[in-house]
Amino acid sequence: MIILAAWVVCSILTYGITFAHFSREYENNDTSGACFALFFSVFGPFGLVVSFISSGCAKHGLRFRK
To answer: What is the DSSP letter of 26?
Structure first.
């Protein structure tokens, strides 16, 4: 149960970091960034590490909606 809760928290953070990176770095108004962030968040802690590093240590912060 603890592993599942940790996975969900990591997925939420992954979505927020990835969506913030795509929406602020590329300034796109379509839903492709949100769809990619949602897909990437399924990978939980692995996706969190990759999105944190690839976004420049989350330089754009967290963002959950446009």
So the answer is: S
